[in-house]
Design brief:
Radius of gyration of chain A: 20 Å
Distance between the termini of chain B: 37 Å
Number of helices of chain B: 12
Radius of gyration of chain B: 24 Å
Strand content of chain A: under 5%
Order of helices and strands of chain B: EHEEHEEHEHHHEHEHEEHEHEEHEH
Shape of chain A: elongated
Largest sheet of chain A: none
Structural class of chain B: alpha/beta
Oligomer: heterodimer
Largest interface: A-B, 33 and 38 residues
Number of strands of chain A: 0
Strand order of the largest sheet of chain B: 6-7-8-3-9-10
Distance between the termini of chain A: 32 Å
Chain lengths: ~280, ~325
């Protein structure tokens, strides 16, 4: 690929992001929908935790020993906020590709000389908007409901963690997109993976409570690092330097998964070109 | 003259049905039947011409277009588009190719016309400095300048189809592929689009279009390939194709004829003044299509033959030869059958 092509693809990447943002802006109702759930879902778990602990100091101390924070509400809100954003990302690329396929715009895109990486990863940046929105809602809810204040420094550190985590999570979504191109259907797989992430990655509990084998598996999954690091920088006051090891692992996973997604997407694109599946659904 | 498209033995096979995941996991042999959609098509489209591919639904027109647009890999055969190999150099082709293949739904309805074009201009690698001017130009070409900032969801079908054409013009293509561009349009919108296509040729662009509207092919195309069952059955100018029919007029006859006995005698009395190319019985009537060089000579013979065989002429229609007649004479069936 020439330098001119690379520059043109970079511009196309930005155009894909801008297109997603423009479309998002025209559905303001979806933002309102994401005010309710990031609050209601973790709130139920907060009440559950209060009921189980009975408000005793020894149970709270046990919780703090395992999580590094006394903020039960913060711990749960951050976990579930990450889960919701994660779900959006997992569904995002596959659903978006499927929508393009059904609408007929996928063929129109494939008629252009743009790199397929732009098609695959272009909409990823817009996902940051959702992450920011969900975490803002959670931040405000924690402040108003539980007096947990997340300052600008913590917010910037959290954004850094999110930005490092985006490639890994989006690459998993991109793998699902490849599956869409191959099989035209992805919901069973997404539901399965979402279930594994919910069970193992510590959305509502610290992974130290998992059995040894499950913890080992959890440590191979990117969301485990993302959730853990977000909690550390938001709730325990950890600096980026203190989670840099985790972030390096997360970035490494992102690279490997992105390469895998590109490879899978290229293979399935070739398959679609042979079988005429770009316009079939 | 330089060739915009050259295809030799272009063939595309598809598997019928699907192979289940279970069959794949068990590595069972693929026993699906193969369906040949395009069967060894040879094409040579010259620069600057409007070349039509005419045929009924399922004839292989769209599959051929998709192969030439690099969306489908041929099973066999090879070809070049704008001098680039179809398979090895697909990206180079896509840089200079405009195509309308997927219809008006392939736009983003929640974006304006301009926003749609801005997005695709970037995908087509239009330089940033030229984008604004290029978009204004294509909008002007398709007469949508005054609606540029309206959401596409508010457009009529015809306007959306024109916007799809505008999108195809963004890379300033020297070759345009238009697959059934007027399907679903009202007569006025279809006429507008045809005018745009003629303007594109006047600008020096090559246009390859598929259609199953013979009037459209007749009106627009410099040359036409008639395809049926994945093969080219005839290729010439519209006039050349009609000339090959060795007739200038077509007489459609409807006779009341209670049994089949008079049919050979009736036809025999026409003294070879015309050739019966189609006959069918509908509710006790016999319908004949007769190709002839002069209806003025044939019609009196028809009246005499009817009187002699005691059949009643219910209807006579004389029309100039059309591409539909050419198609019927080549394939034995009508375009819309």
């Amino acid at each position: 690929m020439s330098w001119t092509d690379a520059r043109a693809d970079a511009r196309a990447f930005w155009a894909a992001t801008r297109k997603e943002w423009r479309t998002l802006r025209r559905y303001p109702g979806s933002f309102l929908g994401f005010i309710f759930w990031p609050i209601a879902l973790p709130l139920a778990f907060v009440f559950q935790a209060q009921a189980f602990s009975g408000g005793r100091s020894d149970t709270m101390a046990a919780f703090a020993a395992r999580t590094g924070t006394h903020e039960v509400a913060g711990f749960l809100f951050v976990g579930w906020a990450t889960y919701m954003w994660l779900s959006l990302i997992l569904w995002g690329p596959g659903t978006s590709l499927r929508t393009e396929q059904v609408r007929g715009s996928l063929e129109a895109i494939f008629l252009t000389p743009v790199s397929r990486l732009v098609v695959l990863f272009g909409p990823a940046v817009s996902q940051v908007v959702w992450a920011v929105w969900i975490f803002v809602v959670v931040g405000v809810a924690l402040w108003l409901g539980f007096g947990v204040v997340i300052g600008p420094a913590e917010a910037i550190r959290a954004l850094t963690v999110i930005l490092v985590g985006v490639p890994a999570l989006y690459a998993i979504g991109a793998l699902f997109a490849a599956v869409v191109l191959r099989f035209g259907e992805v919901s069973a797989l997404v539901q399965g993976v979402r279930g594994i992430f919910t069970a193992l990655c510590g959305m509502s509990f610290p992974i130290v409570v998992l059995p040894e084998w499950a913890r080992t598996v959890a440590l191979t999954l990117p969301p485990t690092y993302l959730i853990g690091d977000l909690r550390q920088v938001l709730l325990t006051g950890a600096e980026i330097g203190q989670v840099i090891g985790d972030l390096a692992i997360l970035a490494g996973m992102g690279l490997v998964l992105a390469l895998l997604a590109v490879f899978a997407f290229r293979r399935t694109e070739q398959y679609a070109r042979r079988g005429g599946r770009l316009a079939q659904y | 003259m330089t060739l915009a498209i050259e295809a030799v033995g272009l063939t595309k096979d598809f598997e019928k049905g699907r192979r289940t995941i279970w069959q794949r996991l068990r590595r069972e042999p693929d026993r699906r039947e193969t369906f040949r959609a395009v069967d060894g098509i040879d094409l040579r489209v010259q620069e600057g011409e409007i070349f039509g591919v005419l045929g009924p639904n399922g004839a292989g027109k769209t599959t051929t277009m998709r192969m030439l647009a690099t969306l489908l890999e041929p099973t066999a055969g090879h070809g070049t588009v704008l001098g680039h190999d179809l398979v090895k150099d697909a990206r180079a082709i896509r840089r200079r190719l405009g195509a309308v293949l997927s219809g008006e739904r392939s736009l983003y309805w929640k974006l304006t016309a301009r926003e749609n074009l801005e997005y695709f201009a970037a995908l087509y690698h239009v330089p940033a400095a030229e984008t604004k001017e290029r978009i204004a130009g294509v909008l002007e070409t398709v007469k949508l300048t005054d609606r540029a900032d309206d959401y596409v969801e508010r457009f009529s079908t015809g306007m959306r189809q024109r916007l799809v054409l505008a999108r195809a013009l963004l890379p300033n293509p020297s070759l345009l592929l238009l697959d059934e561009p007027t399907v679903g349009l009202d007569p006025q919108a279809a006429r507008d689009l045809r005018e745009r296509v003629l303007e594109l040729r006047a600008e020096g662009r090559t246009v390859l279009l598929t259609t199953h509207y013979m009037e459209e092919a007749d009106q627009l195309c410099d040359r036409i390939a008639i395809v049926d069952h994945g093969r080219i059955v005839a290729l010439d100018t519209p006039q050349g194709l009609k000339r090959d029919l060795k007739a200038t007029e077509v007489v459609h006859l409807e006779l009341s004829s209670p049994d089949h006995g008079e049919e050979p005698a009736f036809i025999g009395r026409l003294n070879g003044a015309g050739t019966v190319t189609h006959r069918e019985r509908v509710d006790g009537s016999l319908r004949l299509t007769i190709h002839c060089t002069s209806a003025r000579d044939l019609v009196p013979l028809v009246i005499d033959a009817a009187r002699a065989e005691q059949v009643q002429v219910q209807n006579i229609q004389v029309l100039p030869v059309s591409l539909e007649d050419v198609f019927i004479s080549l394939t034995g069936r009508a375009l819309r059958e």
